[in-house]
Each structure stands twice: as C-alpha cells, then as structure tokens.
Predict the structure.
Amino acid sequence: MNVFRILGDVSHLLAIIILLMKILKSKSCAGISGKSQILFALVFTTRYLDLFTTFISVYNTVMKVIFLVCAYVTVYMIYVKFRKTFDSENDSFRLEFLLVPVTGLSFLENHSFTPLEILWTFSIYLEAVAILPQLFMISKTGEAETITTHYLFFLGLYRALYIANWVWRYYTENFYDQIAVVSGVVQTIFYCDFFYLYVTK
C-alpha cells in the first residue's frame, strides 16, 4: 500500500467524521443532502460485499466496516434522529436520474459478468455521481455552511489523492483499472465544480 492511498483513506474518513460531528454538535442536518448520504451508503454496501468472501488485511477490513457504519449512522441521523431539521424541500434531486443510468452502465461495462463484480462496478460508477444531490442543494439554496464545505473539501482531496494512487500504482506495479480511474476523474471534476460554486456563491 502506498502513501497516496493511505492519505486518501484518511481524508475520506476525516470528511465523514467532520460531517457526523457537525450533525451531533449542532443537532441539525441543515445544509446536508440526505439523498447524497443515501447514495454513499448504497456505494459502501455494494462495494464491500466482499467482506463476506475475501480477506485482504486487517486495515482493509476495519476501514470498510468503519465506512459502512458511519454511512448508515449518518442516514439515521438525517432521516430519524434529527429529521425535523432536515431540509427536504431543497433536497429535491431526482435519484432515478442517477440510479437508472448507473445501473445500466454497470451491466454493460464491467470486468466480469458476475453478481459481486457488477455490484462493485455499480458502486464505482455511483460514487462518481453521489455528490450531485449535495451540489444541487448548494446551488439551489446559494448557501454552504463552513462545516459542509470542509466535508466536501476533504471528499475532493480523497479523490485527488486516489488519482495520485492510481498513477503511482501504474508506474510501480503496472496496474491500471480503467473503470475506477475514469469514474474517479469524473468525480474529481464534480468537486472542482463545488469549489466554483463555493467561490461564486
């Protein structure tokens, strides 16, 4: 494992912790897209099904479990514990516009036509666009709380570090995963769009 991947994982985890701490400290989900959080929970669920079939390392297993637990705790906070503070009116992005094409693409373009591989591919494609409901909410309201922007910054940093990880692996291991790389680049472009929105709003 290289330093870019470790820093990417830490940045990703930090983003989730920042979001959870924001919700717990303020007892509010204001400014947070519940739909994006549902998509991220779906991403982790479909990606980490290999927890039941493959052991890679303790680090790998622990990180997967932490991401899964945090994702579902976040969804619980938004839709159950602090649902009265959730801005459902502005969290109006239609998820079918993402789920239908992502599902179709995962069946058409994958590494092998097996259930686990299709679900893994689905998770990669979905992660690339899962932030769109959050960006749509920010563009609609014209507001982004500082804590929410920190969350998005560290998510964007995670993607940028993973691109560096892929470059490193290509030159040191001759490893290249076209699905992951293309999806990761698309996702990073969306985060660049967030920084544009943040500056202009």
In short: The CA atoms of residues 39 and 130 lie 6 Å apart. Helices lie at 3-26, 34-47, 58-81, 96-108, 115-129, 132-141, 146-173, 178-200. The mean pLDDT is 87. The two ends are 39 Å apart (CA to CA).
